[in-house]
Amino acid sequence: MKRKTPGFYLRIYAKILAQDLKSKMSYRADFIISTIGMICTNIAGFISFWILFRNFPSVAGWNYYEMLFLYGFSLVSLTPVQCFFDNNWSLRSYVYSGDFIKYCFRPINLFFYYQSEVFDIKGLGQFAFGIGTIAYAWSKLGLGFTPLMLLKLMIFLFSASLIMIALQNAAAATCFWIQNSFYVLDLVTRFKDYAKYPVTIFSPVFRFLFTFVMPIAFIAYYPSIVILRPQEVPLLSWLSPVIALVFFFCSYKFWMYGATRYSGTGS
Known about the structure:
By secondary structure, the protein is mainly alpha-helical. It has helices at residues 6-25, 28-55, 64-84, 91-97, 110-115, 123-141, 147-173, 182-191, 204-213, 221-228, 235-238, 240-260; strands spanning 58-59, 62-63. Strand 1 (58-59) and strand 2 form a beta hairpin.
């Protein structure tokens, strides 16, 4: 069989995306209401930070605008998993109904084919809000701006996104072996709420957990330090892109391992 090129997959994805967007836009009221709900949720998070810092000028040495930067950073880094990998939430139902078998007979990558079927356009509202939050905090912190800083921001946002994608891929793939896998995926998703806080505010046990077991500290904290505190960047921050690539690759292999051994019985 001829090896598929990246260009081939890009063309296929563009066609699938166009059809998915046409389908979603046929229900415009649902799209508008969902988007407003997403924006309101993010505004509520913004207000909670403001209320917290009216009473406490800093948290473990992190001031309001630094915390706000972390919050915006986490929103942007979580956008790709919501936009491009939202179909992971349906994986369990496909597996147990037996419908997942239809993905196993197409001459393209199984992981790509399954994930590309759904694009959650509501995530773009979260992306815009996150970028606005980063820009606001950036200006208040007086960080300045250079092409190198922009490059760092893009690289570390990308690596942070890979971490969350990898966490969700691995959690969703447990459905190939665990019947109640929804709770695994739900637990991992709930943990992401801690990503917007500095890992230093937690006890040593949770610092270890959030760094080496459930690495949500790499979603915002470690990548953000490169921008916020360049004079005290720990080694783990510089290693974030490498760790993210390795973690994503392992999650992909784990997902594919379960998918390629799927029997189609729904059991």
